[in-house]
């Protein structure tokens, strides 16, 4: 009998595959993205030490003031800019982009491009 796999289970499997491919690279922090229907979250993670170096999301107070909704492309652009500014201020100019199993499209793409424009290299 054929068993149905939920969208989230498929996304998690893709995410694990992406993470496995990143494992052989130089110890560069990873920019991880998670999106829900109402918000988008991004964090720069140092996997060698198991630490989150910087994070930004549409739930942050300073980001929320400038937005009407947290679940659209405009919000993702703001989060990308804020994350890049925080990462550069923390001394992390270079990251590896981890799209979290989502397609590189829409909000995920907007966040990545905004972070690049703000000076983060990946």
- What is the domain total for the residues? 1
CATH architecture: 2-Layer Sandwich
The total strand number stands at 4
Question: What's the SSE pattern?
Answer: HEEEHHEH
Helix fraction? 25-40%
Count every helix, treating DSSP H or I runs of 4 or more residues as helices: 4
Strand order of the largest sheet: 3-2-1-4
Q: The CATH topology is what? A: Nucleotidyltransferase, domain 5
Instruction: Give the overall silhouette.
Output: globular
Mean pLDDT, all residues? 93
In CATH, what is the class? Alpha Beta
Q: What is the percentage of strand-forming residues?
A: 15-25%
Commentary on this structure:
The chain has 122 residues and is an alpha+beta fold. It has one domain (27-117): Nucleotidyltransferase, domain 5 (2-Layer Sandwich), CATH 3.30.420.100. Helix content is 39%, strand content 19%. It is built from four helices and four strands, in the order αβββααβα. It has helices at residues 7-22, 61-64, 73-89, 107-117, and strands spanning 30-35, 40-46, 51-57, 96-98. It has a four-stranded mixed sheet with strand order 3-2-1-4, with helices on both faces. A hairpin with a 4-residue loop joins strand 1 (30-35) and strand 2 (40-46). Helix 3 (73-89) packs parallel to helix 4. The protein starts with 6 loop residues before the first helix and ends in a 5-residue tail after the last helix. The relative contact order is 0.20. The model has no long low-confidence stretch (mean pLDDT 93).
Q: In short, what is this structure?
A:
By secondary structure, the protein is of the alpha+beta class.
């Amino acid at each position: 009998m054929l068993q149905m796999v939920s969208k989230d289970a498929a996304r998690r499997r893709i995410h694990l595959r992406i993470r496995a491919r990143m494992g052989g690279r130089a110890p560069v922090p990873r920019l991880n993205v998670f999106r829900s229907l109402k918000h988008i979250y991004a964090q720069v993670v140092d996997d060698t030490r198991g630490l989150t170096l910087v994070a930004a999301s549409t739930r942050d107070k300073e980001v929320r003031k400038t937005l009407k909704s947290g679940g659209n492309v405009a919000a993702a652009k703001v989060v990308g800019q804020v994350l890049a500014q925080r990462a550069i201020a923390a001394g992390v100019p270079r990251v590896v982009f981890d799209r979290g199993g989502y397609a590189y499209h829409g909000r995920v793409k907007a966040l990545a491009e905004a972070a690049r424009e703000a000076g983060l290299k990946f």
